[in-house]
Amino acid sequence: VRLHGRRFQHVIAVHRATVGAELCVGLLNDRIGTGSITHVNESALEMDVRFDHTPPQKLALTLILALPRPKVLRRVLRAVSSMCVPRVIIVNSFRVEKSFWQSPILGEKNIQAQLVLGLEQAKDTALPEVLLRPLLKPFVEDELPSLANGALSLIAHPQASVPCPRHTQQATILAVGPEGGFLPYEIDKFTACGFTPVTIGSRILCVETVVPALIAQLC
Amino acid sequence: VRLHGRRFQHVIAVHRATVGAELCVGLLNDRIGTGSITHVNESALEMDVRFDHTPPQKLALTLILALPRPKVLRRVLRAVSSMCVPRVIIVNSFRVEKSFWQSPILGEKNIQAQLVLGLEQAKDTALPEVLLRPLLKPFVEDELPSLANGALSLIAHPQASVPCPRHTQQATILAVGPEGGFLPYEIDKFTACGFTPVTIGSRILCVETVVPALIAQLC
């Protein structure tokens, strides 16, 4: 294979790799292996690659996330992709700014670019599924019951009385609200589908902090 | 009190507060309470404030962090401050770029500004202590033994065989390396001080993801 552009730059500037070096390589949505660098020039490199093992196992977790600010969404997508979350459903909420839904970050290619950065970070190749649901009510009423069926169903809520479970080791679906939180009416919609409000403390954390914290505590 | 500038803008644009509204307020390194808005004009607002309770309890955790990129450090400082970490020691490591130590973010005022943003997010007022140790060897040899004395001493290491403990509920000191990890030689320096290498999985996570994840799993 021949690498140029961003990945070439990364190999040269970060790995400082030269001919003969071995790098971890992977095929998107396929296997992982090793690449031996055979040629380097000023704009590209060539590798002999072989693929001999499967990517790491995904968590049994679906994350429902109220759409955050575009800049934050980029970082959260990278984080959840690096943490092996297989599915993210981005939903609306009363406290989500309407303009966020117009952001170019929500384009399929832009989402995939962030997910790939997370996969590269974690040496994974299996792209998470990202679904956009800009209308909360029909999503919760029509899709959520079957998504949540059989799964531990949790909604993060700083004022909840139930602490977030630890190390659950079962299929889980977790909803995280916007900065400012879901409205009580929205939380009721989730609890009507069998979701339990859970807390990791009354401190209000920003989305990019609370998502890795909740995943680490749960999984 | 009279607010203008960033805090005034936040109250108007995010809280959309008007005269009569009550806001959570706090005095830095002091108590927390309530402010009632009495006047608003186009550049400032006035509040009657009363302070009637103490800030949330800090975690019994010292975080030792290899200096990350300045942009990442800003976010990590906000995150640890919002998660009630009382002390952060920023250290050098072979894989830390030397230029990072010249960054203006390491100035006392800039560090405090990020910590205050984290405190505001979490409704806390007690500023964490941040120490800079640009030389790893004398820090580990001269200061670390007494800092680690009596505490659960852990160093995050993706290839460790021991899983990171959960919900320890005891005084803990946790070291987190740079992207690329501590060198084996550096890890040996920590283990010689009684640190145990622990892992939350073989996936390599970026610093701003792994820090909230480790804190959530430990505390």
What do you see in this structure?
The structure is a homodimer of 219-residue chains. Chain A is of the alpha/beta class and 219 residues long. Helices cover 33% and strands 27% of the residues of chain A. In chain A, strands 7-6-5-10-8-11-9 form a seven-stranded parallel beta sheet, with helices on both faces. The longest helix of chain A is centred in the middle third of the chain and has 15 residues, at 108-122. The two termini of chain A are 36 Å apart. The model of chain A has no long low-confidence stretch (mean pLDDT 95). The interface between A and B is medium-sized, with 28 and 28 residues.
- Beta-strand share of residues of chain A: 25-35%
Q: Using only CA atoms, what is the Rg of chain A?
A: 20 Å
Question: Biggest interface and its residues per chain?
Answer: A-B, 28 and 28 residues
Count all strands of chain A and give the number.
11
Shape of chain A: elongated
Low-pLDDT segments, ≥5 res of chain A: none
Oligomer: homodimer
Kindly state the percentage of residues in helix of chain A: 25-40%
Which structural class best describes the helix and strand composition of chain A?
Answer: alpha/beta
Helix run count of chain A:
6
In short:
Two copies of one chain form a homodimer. Chain A is of the alpha/beta class and 219 residues long. Helices cover 33% and strands 27% of the residues of chain A.
